[in-house]
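Batch manifest, entry 17 of 40.
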Amino acid sequence: MTTPLESVHTRLRVLLASRLGAEFASVPDDTDLRAALGDGYDSLTVMECISAVEGEFDIEVDLVGDDVRHWFATVGRMSRFVADRLEDAGVLGTGR
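Output type: structure tokens
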């Protein structure tokens, strides 16, 4: 049985691969994306990825309060962030 975190992780990898290209496929979950992808993960790309994550998972990312430099640095952190946000919405019965 797939856990919510595994499901989020799988969807997130597919979503990011469509935006970050073939080089992204070999990046481990705990590797800093900026270090691994260089200019392929610049500030504009980060913002595009955040927007895509918001749309895919129907969540809202607070660009200041959510410390996006930390949470969107690795795939593992992004997965945890999204899973936690979805869990919070489920418990609280709220979406965006």
